[in-house]
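Morning!

As promised:
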Amino acid sequence: MSLVFAIFTPVIAALLIPLLYKRVSAIHTGWFVLLIPVALVSLYATYIPPIIDGTTYKDELPWIPSLGLSFISYLDGLSLLFSLLITGIGALVVLYSIFYLDKKKEKLGNFYVYLLLFMSAMLGVVQSDHLISLYFFWELTSISSFLLIGYWYTKDRSRFGALKSMMITVFGGLMMLGGFVILGILGDTYSIRELIAQAPDLVDHKFFVWALVLVLLGAFTKSAQFPFYIWLPDAMEAPTPVSAYLHSATMVKAGLYLVARFTPIFALSEVWVWLVTGIGILTLLWGSFFAVKQTDLKAILAFSTVSQLGLIMSLLGIGSIAYHVTGDLVTTFTFATFAAIFHLMNHATFKGSLFMIAGIVDHETGTRDIRKLGGLMSLMPISFTIALIGSLSMAGVPPFNGFLSKEMFLDAVLNLKNFDLHALDSWWILFPIIAWIASVFTFVYSLYFVFHTFRGKHKPEQLPKAAHEAPVGMLLSPGILASLVVIIFFVPNFFGNTFIKPAVAAIQPLAYQVPADVGFTIKAWHGFDSLAMYMTLGVFLVGYLLFKTIPKWSPIYKTFPTKLSLNGMYDGLMRLGDSGANRFSSIYMTGSIRSYFVYMFTAIIVLLGGTMWIKDAFVISYENLAPIRFFEILISIILIVGTITILVTKSRLTAIIALGAVGYTVALFYILFKAPDLALTQLVIETVSVALFLGAFYHLPQMNKHEKGKEDRGFRLGNFLIALGVGVMVTLIAISSHSQKLIPSISEYYKETVYSEAGGGNIVNVILVDYRGFDTLFEISVLTIASLGIIGMITLRLAKKKGDRKVENK
Amino acid sequence: MEILMSILIGFLFMAAIYLILSRSLLRIIIGTGLLSHGTHLLLITMGGLGGKNAPVLSEGVTDYVDPLPQALILTAIVISFGVTAFSLVLAYRTYKELGTDNMSLMKGTEDND
């Protein structure tokens, strides 16, 4: 089967889901859905042996060939590992959801359509070799995640969480698109393979760091890194299968995938190393510290996810140092990449199972509030066992897989001392210290999660339901994941060789040609000389003490003001955007037509005047001027007097008559300027206009009748200045345009041919009906439309009828 | 003469815009009337005012005024007349419906949106 087709299989299958949901209501829709991830995981499993041998697979489906855009599915160690995680955990989550979501109460059709859409999107993200199709799938994960978080859309918190995650991840996604486009332009290709090959040539380009930062913004927002992690705890309003699948095992790891995938390109820049490592380790500390504060089971797990993602991110950052060193040090630092991928896999197993347990506790007791829970151990022994395995693995306790990866993490951080870039010799020590503190808090919240839920005093009176063990079907998926947790601990190198090494070879192509070259083995026992082991022992000791004394030191969380928290800032920013835009538009959109006229006229003054000023365009020339005659001066004075009369008169009758006077004066001008047709038309039209004005004025109120105390004719300086500005601009433009005529008039042609071609003597009339007859045609149309409009306005009274009906309704 | 006309046209524009910025609907329409006068005069002025004879063929005359601006103005006069007539009736209807000709009172409110 073609690999591109495999990507689209879930979403194609999703088309059938509503049909099955409606028609086959006897069977839980999830059973049909289950077939898809199971089929896909078996498909991808067949690729494991050749990928271990170093083979890669590529499959292409053209999309927009003229733009070089196609869906390219590229399968190497890294994308195969992710594809297996997505489909494998997807299968378990679907199985879990069959028992978690009620067949009758829930809209299962919606749920599984969204889930399958997400599965396709995620497979597309991890297999795309084309940057734009990667972005396409990336946003599809954001959208399907939005739909899934808001699944219970009648709840306010769900909608808030969905919107928040959408805002943050889409913000990052758009930034990432910017980075992709820069990369695409720099490398003249959108294929990641080809960009990797070109990376050494691109690294010195001045926009390279821009692309790097933008792509990292995408990765950090998706993977909930500091300070963008805030959407993840709010996304916990989603149904628990969604939280387990999207927000612990797959979608949040899309950012990690992106970092890993682009390491061969961006790691050549030191900015990358420091950003990824620094932000990662900060997120690790921050998330682990605030996890203990949470009282909601899923919120604890959300913060723990944030923290663990930070851990993996920082390991990827340390791993990218391998691009800056030579010799044995390359192996020292690629070890961090190995640890990152190993922990990524481990985290998917234990975090998935923990989320499912949290869902079971919620399902069986009716609450997720850890303050109400307690003493469930004897009531829910199997859930407790699974939760214990998951938590201890998360805390880094043997014999669980978390221990192995935590040890490797501490080793990798300690290895930083071998790297002397920018005087790191004195600063590197910060990293192990932060890592150690974060590990202590990880230990504390892991114990807090499992023991405060399952140990202590049982408080049945506070629980909405009587607690009892979950059905077997619901325990199946977390059980499988928990057994993986143990199995990985005992045969880590099987998993290491099968999954991790091909992925490491894909991230570090310079160091390793084929997966077999990656020479690491995972050891549970490092010997007494391993500093990491002593650090781990310290973690256990201090962590246990802190866990026992939580009530004593937890008040320090109250000293952090909520306003200064990142959530507070996000809310503030949203409010500011809302009210700011609102206030801004209510300031300039006054609803008064005068304001808009002011904007327009000011724009005319500023733009035209500014252009004239900057270009120094004003020209005055006294050539080609017609002589000034006495009559013209006289008429000008009449015109000015008439205009001033309009401006100052208190009576509208005077104003209308003055306007008529101005119109007749203009007609006189036309006579003086040798335009008989114009004069004729002007006289007639002015007469009709004045008659119309008088007719309308008969019905209109006195100018000030309705504005007692508000003198409209009173002089207004602001209006006058604007009017003066426009008038001056018109004058200046008129003078300078007349002063520099560049080409002669085309009228000579009309004058010469008016009789020979058109058989007429009145040149103006011949132009109107012969040379430029179209103008006249449409001018007639204008008159027709105007008269029809007037008839319509006078005879039709639709609005009034509507208004009457409104009144009746009231 | 053209410079003098330019100044006169500027003055007409100024008066027109001052009227358009006022509150009364009637004054706004009068303002548009003045604005079209100014524009028409601007058109004819820019065509040059030096011609000796009206653009009607007659024996032994070669120096005609430029006929093209006149044709353009003729079209513009008719169109602005149509628009003025329409807006006057619109003002009349507006006053009948709303009971005011004060533009500052004619704001969109939630009731009549």
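Chain A has four domains: 1-190+235-249, 267-518+525-548, 593-762, 763-810.

Hope this helps with the figure draft.
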